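quick one, three chains, predict together pls
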Amino acid sequence: MLESRNIVKKFGSKAAVDGITVRFEPGHVYAMLGPNGSGKTTWMKMAAGLIKPTAGEMLFGGRPVDLESRKEIAYMSTEPYFYAWMTVKDVGKYYADFFPDFSYDRYLRLLERMELTEGLKTPELSSGMMAKLKIAVTLARDAKVWMLDEPFNGIDLLARDEIRRSILEFAADDRVLILSSHLVEEMEAIADRAVFIKEGRLAEEDDLEELRDSRGVSMADRYRAIYGRVEVEA
Amino acid sequence: MKNLIKYEFRKTLSVKLILLGTAALAQLAFMIGLWTGRERIYSLGAFILLLLAFVGVAVIGLTSVLILHRDMNTKQSYMLFMTPNSCYKILGAKVIENGISLLLATVFFFALGALDVSMLMAHEGRLADLWSLVTQFLEGIDSRITLDTETLMSFAFGLLASWFSTVTCAYLADVVSTALLKGKRWNGLGSFALFILLSALMNWALLRLTDGIASVRTVFLVQAGISIVFSAVMYVLTAQIMERKLSV
Amino acid sequence: MQYDPNSPIWLQVMTVLETDIVTGKRPPGDKLPGGRDLAIAFSINPNTAVRVYQELEKQGLCETRRGLGTFVTEDAERIAALRKELALRAVRQFSDRMRLLGISREGAVTLIREQEE
């Protein structure tokens, strides 16, 4: 459904993504893994159409990503990006104005679950609340592909459960969910596939249950093996 | 497109409210001064209003350029470029918002100025005599110069259009800086030079192409026309660069 | 629920359901949650949830009725057999552990008796 072919993005002379060929199929929840700076975010931004590749192709349904694909691919960035004048309600109205697949009712349900109210002003939100708001507004889109960059960052334990719950609620046979996180343990049970990115390249792709079934190996084990001495945060 | 324009107006709202608030205060001072016969107060009010008429229009243009810059260079860029809108529409909304705002500001200050001048004349009979003295004096110097309302309006319109084209030059320079020169050594200087060059080019065209036109009013109107065409060219060029090269 | 990330998650969830069936927490004929609900309740991938039901069905522990959902088997013999399987699994684990600790069969039996008193 979403694939990149030998895609490259250079910033100056440094390649942030250095020739990644990878394919994401509907019906799966993918964990996209790699330390900071490995190229995950740049890859996602190219899929979202925010960054133009230096070389290679990013395809959605076999066609290069464009304005049409933006209607079906929902991207949530790590950092907050709402305008400073916006309340939680304004954020929802903005999405409703621009994304045909956005449902305000679904947004309200998600807000309630995340314990947010429409009247809150976005600049006054704590980082945890902001993270929850980003998730709520992104998942309120009935997208074909969701790409959530670090959805568990800055979120307390209980809210993480709610986020997992919401993600699982919207995962479906005809949808793709891509979660990038360095909190590997958070994703062991909800993802069924893992894509490891290392230094701008695809290092490995695994079916997680297959990995556990045949080798008794966890995603965290593979992470340690691929990235060597890099610490895995709990 | 409608939604994009709506949000462009929302983004520039606070600046406009500040301008409007300041104008209201100055106008209030002007009227109170006039009614109570305190010359210092109403002349201060009138001075601030006059200043605001020029500064206000400049501020509206500058705000628009600053917002475009922020919309490309901060995380807020995702708000625009994540949506299924082409750069032609995204930039177009900005151009339209700015055009309308500049026009409204010009009309607003022009109308307010006309109102205040007539109020002042009604109040101080001597001023009306002074005014006709000034116009006669100017016409004496050059018969083409008349200070009638229509000429003043074409002047205001010409000024507005040329400021509008300056804003579109600034858009282009900023987009070149963000989309093409980012990370390059001479980025800041290069894009500023481009801006100066384009503005100079336009001003040269304004003078060169209106050379030999007899009526001042026609000069202003032709200049306005040239500015608008120039702005349109800037818009197309800028949107094209964004569409092809911009990464946020 | 906390999972052991090194062993298949479908197996861990399946064991929980098996235990529920044997203990009567999920009695014979009881309707089991749908695939998505199971995934949400256990915080597992939906494909893993599908696998859990596939395996349970293969083992004859539940049956899917078209359009109605998945139900716990009403076959009392099958449930009795499951009880024994689970008990055997526990014994196997226990004896593995005792062997590791160097405790003989008799020693282990004595320990159980002492514990019960």
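The domain at 9-116 of chain C is CATH 1.10.10.10 (Arc Repressor Mutant, subunit A).
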